[in-house]
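Forwarding these from the shared drive since the link keeps breaking.
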Amino acid sequence: MDGIQLEILWSNLVSIVSEQAKALQRIAFSPIVREAGDLATALFDAKARMVAQAVTGTPGHINSLGAAAKNLLAEIPPEDLQPGDVLITNDPWMSAGHFFDITILTPIFHQQRLIGYCGSTIHHTDIGGYGVGAGARDIHEEGLWIPVLKLYEQGKPNTTLHRIIRQNTRTPDAIFGDLSAQVSSGKMGGERLIGMCERYGLSDIEALSEAIISRSEVATREAIRKLPAGTTHGETTFDVPGGEMITLKTAVSVDTELGEITIDFEGSSPPSRSGINVVMAYTHAYSTFAIRSVLNPDLPNNAGSLAPIKVKAPGNCIINAEYPVPLNARHVVGMYVPFPILKALSQIVPERVLAEGSGAVWTIQIQGRDRNGRPFTSSMFNYSGGMGARAGKPGLSATCYPTGVAAVPVEVLEASIPIEFTCKELAPGTGGAGRFRGGDGQRIGFRMRTDQEWLLNAIPSRLHTCPEGLFGGEPGASGAFLINGEATLGGQKRAMNASDEILMHTPGGGGYGTPPTT
């Protein structure tokens, strides 16, 4: 395949998956998908290798979706698939790490042959059980566990599965609205791929896929070979909901002969009793993202560019969760995974890394009834602190590295649930000083428009520890979570009075380099 033909077809694939993501956002019921972009869409070849991903999405979904297709097809093999079938699961170990993230895989048939798959993962508003929080004692308290099944069989809904999902969720219309958006976007992606094949006279995409994946892998291995060989170490410590302290340790080994990087989390904290444990697929997703963002961010993110990056963690570890530990708030730890990796890489490529940021987005879920007695469950709304400073630029304020998820706009939330925001503003000076200053956190206050008790699930982090600076940069400020002016640690679902007010101060990012003297 010559370079010009490859570039034309590659552009077609990127357009297909990006259009799939845009369609998903337009159709979705949930603001967390529609407004915040908490999603991933990808295209796979017939061997279930991720070939292309949309430009929209979050690494925890994108890179775990890259592994999910093979996991689903190990349960329902390709020979058992027919046109019109749609696969589904929210098994945490199969895909994105907790029950709220549901993965849909749509087989694509062209000329009676299976030529690939369209996949998507999105965060759903509710999946029954405890909710988005860290208070469950084991995974079975956390919600409905959907094994790998056919959501649609030859174009017809699996009515038994549909009834089970509807009966086990608090807001079934919203759940099925978002599932329908995933199914529709997958169908559209398949139609666009078939159209591309017909347009360019292709019976399948095997040669195209092989060219893209092999070139991506070769380029990644060449980039790794340019690094100094050897092993460097990094470590980060932070507090999570309830005040528990977590330590993540990494040894990053560069093998220039093979062109591979191995990340080993030996020595990290053991599993937690809280629902903040992380499955290996999610750990792998954010580990590979950290390496890719430093190493060669311009290369396509696919099975080829991910192959040379190996991730290991001991079995008895908070970031290699084993059944039946709780997982629903797994992002609280998972989004810290890149920081020890970046500290290790700072010893060999200091100009490409950034200082520690605020860490995980602060996630809030609220449940209750409005003044008319109608039930509501919020879409998860995420608030970021400051991003760590970079080698040549300050950190971004109210921006979380490593997730790509935005906060749901205040106006959208106030229109969709009975909530009233009392403030939302930057907190100047919370970023750490340095040659380049860390990004600032923010202040967000809200109360509910209801006459009844309501339930709050809040999972803030870094309330006691500060994001560290790098190369002499000063730390960013820690955060604070207040209920009626009184500081609390969060972590447990709690009943709130109708008039209660919440105020959140998210952390600032660490500075980079020694601050200039005045």
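-- next protein --
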Amino acid sequence: MSAVQQIDAIIVGAGFSGMYQLLSLRDKLGLSAKVLEAADGVGGTWYWNRYPGARCDSESHSYMFYFSKELVHEWEWSERYPQQPEILRYLNYVADKFKLRPDIALNTRMSNAQYDEATSRWLVSTDTGERYSAKYLITAVGCLSSANLPKIEGLKDFTGQWYHTGLWPHAGVDFTGKRVAVIGTGSTGIQAIPVIAAQAAHLTVFQRTPNYSLPARHAPLTPEFKQYAKAHADDIYKIMTTNTNGHPFAIVDRSALAVSSEEREAIFEEQWKMGGFQFRAAFNDILSSQEANDTAADFICNKIREIVKDPATAELLSDIDHPFAAKRPPIDADYFETYNRDNVSLVSIRQTPIERITASGIKTSEREYAFDIIVFATGFDAMTGSLVKMDINGRDKRNLKDYWQAGPRTYLGLQVPGFPNMFTITGPGSPSVLCNMLPAIEQHVDWITDCIRHMQQKGLDRVETTEQASQTWQQEVDRAANATLLPKVKHSWYLGANIPGKPQVFMPYAGGLAHYREICNNAVAQGYKGFEFNH
């Protein structure tokens, strides 16, 4: 058995969160830190998600670190919405620029973490046999990193190939001349379907839940825009960190119901042509008023019927049962247009459910379909999946998975009662997936770093949030969600509804990034209210 290595901090995950946390602890505080990463390269979500069409839905000039002005000015994006290979190149550039690699253990998965009350330290073991004793344990495992493969009977009998979008082969998949099935029409399915359709002999899409989607209007960035984004980096960052959604634009302060139907239609049309998430920022009550929301939903459904030529297919795609943007709406490149191709079919598994997978394909309640390849675009066990898969045991042998059996409980999405000196970057109870992830990540890492600096300066051994703080915060998470239309989506992964047996609890904080930042700052100003420190 290997000797126990003494270290200040263990960080789990080498994506955006883990790399910035490493840099902050090491270079700002002078602490020793080690990142444990299961993959053989850095990148986190963008290492694993290599499916066809994988692309970010935040604009490139906002989906980057802003902590280093030098980095902002050195790096140049090529497109409005960066594709997976370009984002991965960026993350590797960051790892090299800041010399992070020596402190990242690749091909290393944390297998167990146990808090030792006698020493106020975390004992961490890995699947490679390494053992660490660390004062701090910081999870940076991502909100959408635990792939969800549905339990459909017969998968082991299938004689063709099958893949999950979140665990895509690095060599890629050749669909040329193949009969392909895609199960799922969430954001990954919506990105992958047009690309697969262009290659496959025939593509059959199995749709349970019709989805809104906004045109991305992808385009290369002009030299003028690249120059503008660098020259106005401070202004862009200020907009991102002082608004609700963390994107580089503000929500317009007007009601969808306060303008005439003609003016509203013209505004929606203008935003549709512009593309991207600005469509939902055209009015301030899209997510708070059902009546206002209906105007946006009707506009998009009419667009679907306008684009999709076959009336029956258009009806299946536009028969959407939830408010617009109550689930994060995907942005796409010719998704609805893809259904006009002769080699694409749509099957509603709401009307004709999948009964099983057979040796040659998929059997629904209506008929059997033959396929060479099945693609599962079935999403993730979001927010909590990656955390509860790790065997984390806190004070009094409290196990995280057991403690969260009725749903996640945190304070500010930063700490969990009973788990001293453990921090969760963009954990449940924080804005995370309801906004652009990068400003949310930077805010969390900066807050955690400041808290650890405070402890180091004061000679404090432990910090732990309280049960009371956690309960009060969950009430605020519920209040913020219920002030919107978000909880109306009964099959939303925001609630964990895509995972059988998972408790139905609204997980992210819907009060907006700017308001959340203020709450975190106020907690510090009040002597870290909600946290208890011990020498």
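Residues 4-146+382-468+513-534 form a domain with the FAD/NAD(P)-binding domain fold (CATH 3.50.50.60). Residues 493-499 have pLDDT under 50 and may be disordered.

- D.
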